[in-house]
Design a protein that fits this description.
By secondary structure, this protein is of the alpha+beta class. The chain has helices at 2-39, 134-154; strands spanning 45-52, 55-62, 65-75, 78-87, 90-100, 106-115, 118-124, 127-128.
Length: 155
């Protein structure tokens, strides 16, 4: 019986370790893709979708493939900056940074990592959000829906 329990325990530990490795590799791969897009942005076609006194929206394509959408908005005393990164037609990463214009302090910084169109990791102020929470699940659905909308708007 002890041997059976030990085998089950070791299987669980090894499975968890493998899952963590896969998860960490996904985050690493997404960060690498994001850096490649950012480092090659000058080689992409840049389309100005919106530009006025309160902000801007730019869309970047590599050939005909959507790579990045950036939005900047001045909202009262807050500058809002959001970036959406795409790979193979799928949203893979998004980051939003809101800055108080008077103090220049960041008041909101959130990062979203996605795989196959679904949220796999989310941080608020560099603190991970529990992926089993209802908030995480709700944001997953909202991001999926919004990604489809901004892809369509980018055309």
């Amino acid at each position: 019986m002890k041997k059976f329990f030990f085998v089950i325990l070791m299987s669980f530990i090894l499975t968890q370790g493998t899952y963590a490795q896969i998860y960490n590799q996904q985050i690493t791969d997404i960060d690498k893709a994001r850096r490649e897009i950012k480092n090659n942005i000058q080689n992409f076609q840049k389309i100005e979708k919106i530009r006025d006194s309160t902000g801007s929206r730019y869309v970047y394509f590599k050939e005909k493939e959507l790579q990045l959408i950036t939005v900047f908005c001045e909202d009262k005393n807050i500058d809002k900056s959001v970036e959406w990164y795409f790979s193979n037609g799928q949203l893979i990463y998004s980051e939003q940074i809101w800055t108080d214009t008077k103090s220049s302090k960041t008041i909101d910084n959130e990062k979203f990592y996605l795989s196959n169109g679904h949220l796999i990791a989310w941080t608020k102020e560099n603190n991970p959000v529990d992926n089993t929470s209802q908030e995480f699940k709700d944001v997953d659905v909202q991001l999926f829906t919004y990604a489809e909308k901004i892809k369509e708007d980018a055309k």
